[in-house]
Amino acid sequence: MKYITKFFVALLLGVTICFGGFNNYANSSTINSIEPNKISSSSDVHNEIKPNETIEIPMTLTYKRVVAIANKTQCVLRPVGVYNNLLSWPIGDVGPLQAEGQKFVDENFSFASNYQIDCGIDTEKRNVQLSSSIAITTGERKINIGVINQDGNQPAKITWDNMKNSDDKSLKNFPFEVHAFIKQKDKSFFWIYEITEQR
Questions:
Q1: Which of 15, 59, 73, 94, CA to CA, is 20 to 30 A from 30?
Q2: What is the architecture, at CATH level 2, of domain 2-197?
Q3: How far apart are the C-alpha atoms of 78 and 118, rounded to whole Å?
Q4: Distances (CA, A) of 86 to 11, 157, 161
């Protein structure tokens, strides 16, 4: 079931991105809500899909790299720290049941961010850290996550320092869980972070 969920989220984000749901690097903005079995509205795409449904993407991708966050919680993800090694972390607040991302034509990047999971005034705050990179010379891709419950830049820097490979990652910070993975579509690569709420 875990792999079906990963596949579905990757497919959902991939289709959304391909049909213009994400903006170019210079202009980041929120896309349509993520609801179960929904993708962003487009006249070219069916609004409702099933997890086992195969979708053919007829477009040629004109960008090579995408960094995306899928917030599948009822809370807001607020950046409270950053570490920028190459370029700047491109994503700001991510609302409840929202996805936000940035696409890059051919830029290389190496950065990390520290997000507070804000569920309201009377709730204990939790944090997640997200880190991604692609090497300038070799093209080596890396991804990492952290769950240090502290605001500021240092948790983002620690997560970036510990970024070693492109393997899928999964960590719990009760009642939340963060998953990170890199997917490929043709010659395009997607760094995808999914934050879910355990019930």
A1: 59
A2: Sandwich (2.60)
A3: 7
A4: 28, 13, 14
Integer angstrom CA distances of residue 6 from 39, 88, 166: 15, 27, 15
State both tokens at 50.
Answer: 């099933």
Comparing CA positions, the residue from 144, 169, 177, 170 lying closest to residue 158 is 144
Q: What are phi and psi of 194, to 5 degrees?
A: -120, 125
pLDDT tens figures, 122-155: 888 899 999 999 988 888 999 999 999 999 999 9
pTM: 0.73
Nearest in space to 61 (alpha carbons), one of 195, 177, 175, 188: 188
